[in-house]
Specification:
Blueprint lengths: L3 E6 L9 H16 L1 E8 L8 H10 L5 E6 L6 H13 L4 H5 L3 H12 L6 E4 L16 E5 L3 H11 L3 H21 L5 E4 L2 H10 L5 E3 L17 E7 L5 H21 L4 E5 L5 H9 L3 E5 L5 H4 L2 E6 L9 H8 L3 E4 L16 E2 L3 H12 L2 H18 L2 H18 L3
Parallel strand pairs: 1-2, 1-4, 2-3, 4-5, 5-6, 6-7, 8-9, 8-11, 9-10, 11-12, 12-13
């Protein structure tokens, strides 16, 4: 059945750098092959500058979406607006993200589209903060996507925040998110989860919530193995404007990297991603074995020659697309259990798991010294993503979730 899909997102999914953007872009592209798709998205000017960048995003997204409309995210109008939003969130009973994504224009546009003559078959709301917009959808079946279980993500983040005030604020947001998830998620025809673990977690929070697992995926043609000569380089990729990535790199540099260097003195560590913290930049300036190039337009020429890809995450939820991208490129990968959470990969066969700093360093050193082992891990990882995580496979699973939601809402 050819569907008419109204897809509402918290951020313009272009350019597809980073997890949520990558997932949104690739799923929209897959949906657009066989279905009618209209995209409504919040515009983040700090991520997508006004002018030509915005117009380029419209052109690209309209190549597979029937229409594309952007809406303003009010806290990002200025620093003053952001300060006002944070101050208001202290008294606001719902999560900050819900407050931040209030927009009367989007409410009005949804009502027009869902009550008009060309009504969609399904409405896709792409994060828990967009849940209030379901009331504008005139009883049409709605699915709600959870890239993580947000309350779990915030609780984990609170454990690693250093400042007492910040930790208290994050904990309060985690409690509000959990209450909101409990009250809200069971009202949706389907909650789209990215892993079985997240589906179980949500079921424990929101009794009766219907879930369908649609994992993250990877473009196996774009992220293909390269024949680069490997150097003793360890690499991480991920925007360090995100707390989880920033924490991962700082922990790796503080606790893991010194031990790796003691064993493999010629090793290099490269951390790629936008907005590295002052601490990370200072550590790179003081240590010639560490390189922090910031954002790069294409990570593949950097990842290709690296011997080991690391995912030293201590905070997060859902599944990390960076893991799938690395596996698709046939890289030997060392990750914490949380870093590889939600991905169907076997420890010792498709990747290597390590949670303590000493274990992580030991695993990295072993792989740096053993090219045969790296090759075997990388080949098995590539085969796994081809079988289970290519975007066409994932796109079909999302369409199945839509069909379930439509069937559930039929009288």
């Amino acid at each position: 059945m050819r569907m008419h899909i109204l897809y509402v997102t918290q951020i313009v999914p272009y350019p597809p750098h980073g997890g949520v953007l990558q997932r949104g872009y690739n799923l929209l592209r897959e949906l657009g092959r066989e279905h009618r798709v209209r995209l409504l998205a919040f515009h983040h000017p700090d991520e997508l500058p006004h002018g030509e960048a915005v117009e380029a995003s419209r052109r690209e997204l309209r190549s597979f979406c029937e229409d594309v409309e952007y809406f303003e995210l009010w806290p990002k109008r200025s620093r003053l607006h952001m300060a006002a939003a944070l101050a208001a969130s202290i008294a606001y009973p719902k999560p900050f993200s819900v407050l931040a994504q209030r927009n009367t224009g989007l409410h009005r546009r949804l009502q027009e589209l869902c009550l008009g003559p060309d009504r969609p078959d399904i409405v896709h709301l792409d994060t828990i903060a967009l849940a209030p917009y379901a009331r504008d959808c005139a009883g049409l079946p709605c699915v709600l996507t959870h890239h993580n279980v947000e309350s779990q993500l915030m609780r984990r983040r609170a454990e690693h925040e250093r400042g007492l005030a910040t930790r208290a604020y994050v904990r309060s947001q985690a409690r509000r998110l959990e209450r909101y998830e409990a009250e809200t998620c069971n009202r949706f025809a389907v909650n789209v989860m990215v892993s079985d673990a997240d589906a179980r977690t949500l079921a424990g929070i929101s009794a009766g919530a219907c879930t369908a697992v649609v994992p993250n995926g990877v473009d196996t043609h774009y992220f293909a193995p390269r024949s680069d000569q490997q150097s003793p380089t360890v690499i991480f990729t991920g925007g360090m404007n995100m707390f989880a990535n920033r924490d991962a790199v700082e922990w790796f540099l503080d606790e893991v990297w010194p031990e790796v260097l003691r064993k493999v003195s010629e090793a290099q560590f490269v951390a790629i991603g936008q907005r590295p913290s002052p601490k990370i930049l200072a550590m790179a300036a003081a240590d010639p074995s560490v390189k922090v190039p910031g954002h790069v337009p294409d990570v593949r020429p950097w990842v290709g020659p690296a011997a080991v890809y690391v995912v030293p995450m201590r905070v997060g939820g859902g599944t990390r697309l960076k893991v799938l991208d690395a596996m698709s490129q046939g890289k030997a990968l060392v990750a914490t259990r949380l870093g590889a959470e939600g991905i169907e990969a076997e420890d010792g066969r498709h990747l290597v798991l390590a949670d303590t700093a000493s274990d992580f360093a030991r695993r990295v050193v072993e792989l740096l010294r053993d090219p045969g082992r790296r090759q075997a891990l990388g080949a098995a990882a590539r085969q796994r993503v081809e079988e289970r995580y290519a975007w066409p496979v994932i796109g079909r699973r999302l369409v199945e979730a839509y069909a379930t939601a439509i069937e559930a809402r039929r009288p």
